[in-house]
Write a structure and sequence with these properties.
Elements lengths: L7 H7 L13 E6 L6 E8 L5 E9 L2 H14 L4 H15 L25 H23 L1
Antiparallel strand pairs: 1-2, 2-3
Helix pairs in contact: 1-2, 2-4, 3-4
């Protein structure tokens, strides 16, 4: 028997998105949208002097899976480097595409194992990770300039 796609853990995460307010004057902002379902995630990022995420703001308009992914991303993004965020984004994309047996090294992503056979749900799950990776990279480039 397969696990349900939407379960209490997913719904609990979807209802507890951290950093759910946009930053006033972020170093970088990125908005991502899934053409498949219309989910949207906007992420604002500030980096500290060491190039790590110091502040995060989000606006999430997504299904429960997208909201849960944004919650997991937000809960663990502070202190990460743009390279770490990019690596997690790539690993998540690959795992969802079936290119690996284990979820990426990011707390809680195993919760999306029931979504693996549902490729139409993958874009929404990836949105927050794509947005934060891109925003951190932009902020890092601007900081280096």
């Amino acid at each position: 028997m397969t696990a349900p796609l939407y379960n209490n853990q997913i719904l609990r995460l979807a209802a507890s998105i951290p950093y759910h307010e946009r930053l006033t004057n972020p170093m970088a902002s990125v908005e991502k949208r899934s053409p498949v379902c219309g989910s949207r995630v906007a992420v604002d990022v500030d980096l500290d002097a060491d190039g790590r995420v110091a502040a995060l703001g989000m606006q999430v308009r997504a299904c429960a899976l997208g909201q849960a992914a944004a919650s997991l991303m937000g809960a663990h993004a502070i202190g990460r480097t743009p390279a770490e965020l990019d690596a997690t984004r790539s690993a998540l994309t690959n795992w969802l595409a079936g290119e690996g047996d284990t979820p990426p090294d990011w707390p809680g992503l195993d919760i999306f194992t029931p979504a693996l056979p549902h490729s139409a749900r993958h874009p929404s799950i990836r949105l927050a990770f794509e947005a934060v990776a891109e925003a951190a990279a932009v902020a890092g480039q601007d900081k280096a300039a």
